[in-house]
Amino acid sequence: MKKTAIVTGGGHGIGRSIVTKLLTDGCQVAVLESNPAYVDILSNETNQSLLPILCDIGVPAQVENAIQTIGKQFRQVDYIVNNAGIGCFKPLDELTIEEWNRVLSVNLSGMFYVVKSCKSFLSDHSAIVNIASTRALMSEPDSEAYAATKGGIVALTHALAMSLAPKTRVNCISPGWIEVNDYEGLTEADHSQQPVGRVGFADDIAETVSFLLSEKSGFITGHNIIVDGGMTKKMIYD
């Protein structure tokens, strides 16, 4: 019997790579995506295992409706990948309260809404992977809203791991520099910054997601897995 997965923000970038990997792994995949153009693209794919749903995960009512649709069609949910996220990088005195709240509602609260709405559909031995960021651990200027949500995801992950145990394992991934737009346009200097010698691919994250959802990682829960080519371990002296 096919496993059922939900992927948020699965229309492009890392999310799209995760969807492709899970389909390859033999899952049926429901994609919650807020961009109508990406939903149309996914809807035009001739894959009976793919269910695209237009949904803004920052809006609880939309999440609830989407999960009810998934529950009626698939009956149960084996995997959740909370990937959707937005950024807003502005100086502190220019960042509005509305912008702050919007980033929190999508990046952090949206994950909570999805898991809460799915709880009654989760199968035994289910697994959840939340996508955080190395910005949960280090920052550049003008990144308060984004960094706060990514740090919150790490904490939400271990809290959910305890609340949903032993039925459901919950882990998160903190990607480093993952280039999803113009990999060919990267310079040697870009690649040489990374201890592994290259900038990351979206597939690097998708492969890690696949592992954390599988029983191969059955003794791992509550953890933040850093996938950054070693950048957070690199000492830099000016």
Describe this structure as you would to a colleague.
- The protein has 238 residues and is of the alpha/beta class.
- It is built from seven helices and seven strands, in the order E-H-E-H-E-H-E-H-E-H-E-H-H-E.
- The chain has helices at 13-24, 36-43, 60-74, 97-118, 144-164, 188-192, 202-213; strands at residues 4-8, 28-33, 50-54, 77-82, 122-131, 168-175, 224-227.
- Strands 3-2-1-4-5-6-7 form a seven-stranded parallel sheet, with helices on both faces.
- Strand 4, helix 4 (97-118) and strand 5 (122-131) form a beta-alpha-beta unit.
- The chain is globular.
- The relative contact order is 0.14.
Features:
40% helix, alpha/beta, 7 strands, 238 residues
**Overall morphology:** globular
Task: State mean pLDDT (0 to 100 scale).
Answer: 96
- Could you tell me how far the N terminus lies from the C terminus, measured between alpha carbons in angstroms? 56 Å
Percent of residues in β-strands: 15-25%
Q: Residue ranges: pLDDT <50 for 5 or more in a row?
A: none
Residues in helices, as a percent range: 25-40%
What is the element string, with H for helices and E for strands?
A: EHEHEHEHEHEHHE
Number of helices: 7
Task: Give a brief rundown of this model.
The protein is of the alpha/beta class. The protein contains seven helices and seven strands.
Outline the secondary-structure elements:
Blueprint: E1 4-8, H1 13-24, E2 28-33, H2 36-43, E3 50-54, H3 60-74, E4 77-82, H4 97-118, E5 122-131, H5 144-164, E6 168-175, H6 188-192, H7 202-213, E7 224-227
Parallel strand pairs: 1-2, 1-4, 2-3, 4-5, 5-6, 6-7
